[in-house]
Design a protein that fits this description.
The complex is a heterodimer. In chain A, about 75% of the residues lie in helices and about 0% in strands. Chain A is mostly helical. Chain A has one domain: Sodium/glucose cotransporter, CATH 1.20.1730. In chain B, helix 1 runs antiparallel to helix 3. The chains are: A mainly alpha, B mainly alpha.
């Protein structure tokens, strides 16, 4: 059957499923809208968290980035999984025990201050908006490549779907659609991986396969290291980044993960404290399935790519090569006019540029897999982007309707009006995110990676110290959060956007890139918070009791 | 609950957390980053060991750590109720 039919069937079926779930799980109270009535089973919450967490970037870009960077790509693998250990051990159980709706809720109550609450709302909005715009863009790219509509139409279709189930069902609708989306996306990711692993190495488990030897008897990783050396790339299994930078980026991503509001809020939806721990465990297990497969796909596709194109005549390239050329994500420039493709590490002689994003999407075509596998991949990529967008949307809408309106500006608002306000702010947030998806600004792509640094520099110390110290007070936390996020924003604007005099790699502080600077900004936050708290007076008695209560089983 | 018992519960919890976070640090930042060069001289199952930790082992380890904590805390909660 024709590829286009397969894609319409896969995408159509999955969308029908999401809409069906949305109609079945409408929210009728604010508690259902914000935290799904706190009645979600830990296993279901684990799946929902996994889908919430794995965005278009995890699904489409990550394996490609690892493919091109080898060992250096490990920062994403460890960074985006290790944060769950911090969540399960240090944050999630206590936040569940606290039992409110949002992260600013916790910060506002624990630090007995609406100023702290407002600072938290501001941080939550910055982090979530930078993130969601990237998701809508991802939806647009997948639609335009696979369904052959233009990006604008793609984004609008995506917006309509998310709007439908997020506005109708709130957290309840989002949770159960995310469960379905996890199943779609993991199936879509694993089928081609297993297929290719079996074709190349004879192992059906990709995690074992990429350490094994290929059909020619040579170990895949050794062969790849050899090819890389020969062509002038850095060795695949060792890195080109400095150790301190790798360390700091990994730390910033881990701590940032644990501080992201849309991840934390998922743990408010389970019944009890022990369920919060359990669902963190399930979530990481479900995430690990994709994250341990991605480096295997990276190796298979890298070897495949080099062997298919390098030193081969341009005229004999298969169909997928030309198809991706028209998207601009792949380009060939015959510098020495010999009609052969020279793929080299050195810029002066390299003739082929490949965008990292196409590795996962083109992989099945490069490996000649059947059409239904490619269609599945399209549905999976959409599931990954939509599920993350919906989770972020809820954080934005609850920050506006609950934290700002109900808790700060209009405490007397009725339950019904708050629910209406939540739905209106969700709608506005989708429209704004869609606008950025259709008209991407340079800053959007650059800031998605930095959202982690911002979360690490603002939320993580405030929440952690709020639980593990009774001495930290509102003066300390407010100055720490403002100090941390300001320092992070400053570094980001200086080295990513050339403000404040700009600078290049040689000017980085301690040799740390903007992506890794969240670690330094977080340490700065800790120091400021602790120092300021020490010289101002301890929190009142009722707050100390609240903290004792959080620590009980 | 009696205050003394509560303090004990919290102290035990802190002990579990510190031990498990030490392992968390060793398998990722230790084996995957700081000592990756040394471990790469060893090869197992077609992988250089340091590289394997950075791209596979650390992730498996994280999952195991969380499930150990779930087990320990459930047991602690139980002994508390009785």
């Amino acid at each position: 059957m024709d590829l286009q039919y397969w894609i319409w069937i896969a995408v159509g079926l999955s969308f029908t499923l999401y809409i069906g779930i949305a109609i079945w799980s409408r929210a009728s109270s604010t508690k259902e809208f914000y935290v799904a009535g706190s009645g979600v089973h830990p296993l279901a919450n684990g799946m929902a968290t996994a889908a919430d967490w794995m965005s278009a970037a995890s699904f489409i870009s990550m394996a490609g980035i690892i493919s091109f960077n080898g060992y250096d790509g490990s920062v994403y693998l460890m960074g985006w999984t290790g944060g769950y250990v911090l969540l399960a051990l240090l944050l999630a159980p206590y936040l569940r025990k606290f039992g409110k709706f949002t992260v600013p809720d916790f910060i506002g109550d624990r630090y007995y201050s609406n100023t702290a609450r407002a600072v938290a709302v501001f941080c939550a909005l910055i982090v979530s908006f930078t993130y969601i715009a990237g998701q809508m863009r991802g939806v647009g790219v997948v639609f335009s490549r696979y369904l052959e509509v233009d990006i604008t139409t793609g984004v609008i279709i995506g917006m309509a779907i998310v709007l439908f189930y997020a506005v109708l069902g709130g957290m309840k609708g989002i949770t159960y659609t995310q469960v379905a989306q996890y199943i779609v996306l993991i199936f879509a990711f694993m089928v081609p991986a297993i297929y290719i692993s079996f074709l190349v190495t004879g192992h059906i488990i990709p995690q074992i396969g990429f350490g094994a030897s290929g059909t020619d008897g040579a170990l895949l990783l050794e062969k790849l290291d050899g090819l890389h050396k020969e062509l002038g790339f850095h060795e695949y299994t060792s890195g080109s980044k400095s150790m301190i930078d790798v360390f700091c980026i990994t730390m910033a991503l881990m701590v940032g993960t644990a501080g992201l509001p849309h991840v934390i809020v998922r743990f408010f939806t389970v019944k009890k404290v022990s369920d919060a721990r359990k669902s963190a465990g399930w979530a990481l297990l479900f995430i690990a399935v994709l994250y341990t497969t991605a480096p295997a796909i990276a190796v298979f596709s890298r070897t495949n790519l080099i062997e298919t194109v390098n030193n081969k005549p341009y005229k004999l390239m298969p169909e997928w090569f030309n198809k991706w050329e028209t998207t601009g994500l792949l380009s060939f420039n015959d510098k020495n006019d010999d009609g052969l493709i020279q793929y080299r590490g050195e810029n002066a002689v390299n003739e082929l540029t490949v965008d990292a994003d196409i590795m996962v999407l083109a992989n099945p075509e490069i490996a000649n897999l059947p059409n239904w596998v490619i269609a599945l991949l399209a549905a999976g990529a959409l599931a990954a982007a939509l599920s993350t967008a919906a989770g972020l949307l809820l954080v934005i809408s609850s920050a506006v309707s609950h934290d700002l309106m109900k808790k700060i500006f209009r405490p007397n608002i009725s339950e019904r009006s708050e629910l209406i306000a939540a739905r209106i702010s969700a709608t506005l947030a989708v429209i704004l995110a869609g606008y950025f998806g259709i008209n991407p600004r340079g800053f959007v792509a650059a800031t998605v990676a930095l959202a982690f640094g911002l979360a690490a520099a603002s939320f993580f110390p405030a929440i952690l110290l709020g639980i593990f110290s009774k001495r930290i007070n509102k003066e300390g936390t407010i100055s720490g959060m403002i100090g941390g996020i300001t320092l992070m924003l400053f570094y980001m604007l200086k080295f990513k956007f050339n403000w404040f005099g700009g600078g290049n790699q040689s000017n980085w502080w301690f040799g740390i890139s903007p992506e890794g600077f969240g670690t330094i900004a977080m340490l700065f936050n800790f120091i400021v918070t602790i120092t300021v708290s020490a010289i101002t007076k301890a929190p009142p008695k009722n707050i100390q009791e609240l903290i004792s209560n959080l620590r009980e089983p | 609950m009696i205050t003394d018992k509560k303090t004990q519960y919290w102290k035990k919890n802190i002990k579990y957390i510190s031990v498990l976070l030490t392992f968390w640090f060793i398998i990722s930042f230790g084996c995957g980053i700081l000592f990756v060069g040394h471990l790469n001289t060893i090869s197992i199952g077609g992988f250089k060991l340091g590289f394997w930790f950075a791209q596979q082992g650390a992730i498996f380890g994280f999952v195991i750590i969380i499930f150990i904590y779930i087990f320990l805390m459930n047991r602690l909660d139980q002994s508390f109720k009785s």
